[in-house]
Amino acid sequence: MDFGFIFSSAAGELFSPTTAAYALATLGLAVHFGYTGLLNFGQAGFMAVGAYGFAISTLTFHVPFFVGLLIAVVCSAIFALLLGIPTLRLRADYLAIVTIAAAEIVRYIVTTNQLTSVTGSANGLAAFEGDFYAMNPFPPGTYIGMNNRDFFIRVVAWAVVALFCTLVWLLMRSPWGRVLKGIREDENAVRSLGKNVYAYKMQSLIIGGALGALAGMIFTLPRGAVQPANYGTELTFFLYTCLLLGGLGTVLGPVVGAMIFWVVLSLTQGILYGLIESGTITWLNTVQAGQLRYILVGVALMLLMIFRPQGVLGNKKELAFA
Question: What is the pLDDT of residues 231-253, one digit of tens each?
């Protein structure tokens, strides 16, 4: 078993575009749940809306890259309004039910055969990343073991993550952010002070959803394709795993949680595949090993919740509202 290859592959996941996309989407969940107390179980839907909004506008309407990006963010804001208007005045569990259902509705809509010419149905859409890579300032060559395209997407993805981590950090230190934290702890007390709790919740839902939409774009650009199967309900729960690993009410927690999540997945897969190939494990095949790694991550998450429920970077005070 080649441990050097296994560990190098796992280390490569630390700064992969997929990890960056998970970090950004989890940051959106931190705005929703960690700071505002909104139980959003449909972040995968926001990611799908962003990815398809960008891909459809690029392929069907041939808009420039930045116009497609703007369309994706606007679509996510409309999606947030459609979810928030009927639910944010109600109990938190209503939002959870609506968001998880809405995310599935989005996924089923894009797989409809009647929309194949627009959404690609179950096959998805491809070849929409040309304008993005046309902006690549790095000439052909090798950069830290990567070609110029891979290096470019990593630089952009993590620059976006750093930018929005900074913006969220500044927002949460502002009076607006302190109101969100107050809503999380006791929204009736905030309402008694004359604050429009409904408006603040809606703003939080839109901002966190926009982060999810941007994450959906980053998630698809390296692949050059957007497919509905990638936006199932399990994606949202993976994001919650990242959030719990890093810490609920933190800015860097989602980033650290996403890194831990993907490194652990890569390590467990590499070790299990190595043991199977060497004949050490004969009662598993590679397909079963792929599922077993999620079980191992789940066990690790349960242990974390027992011994450090606030997450790696979290504060025990942040658990008071849970």
Answer: 999 999 999 999 988 988 899 99
- Residue 47 makes CB contacts below 8 A (sequence gap 6+) with 21, 25, 212, 213, 215, 216, 219, 231, 235
pTM, two decimal places: 0.93
Evaluate the CA torsion angle 208, 213, 216, 217 in order and state its sign. negative
- The candidate with the shortest Cα–Cα distance to 201, out of 25, 30, 31, 27, is 31
pLDDT in tens, 77-111: 999 999 999 999 887 788 999 999 999 999 999 99
- DSSP conformational letter for 294: H
Return the number of other C-beta atoms located less than 10 Å from residue 101's C-beta: 15
Alpha-carbon distance of 174 to 225, in angstroms, equals 38
Identify which of 201, 243, 179, 190 has the alpha carbon closest to the alpha carbon of residue 25. Answer: 243
Consecutive H or E run containing 225: strand 225-226
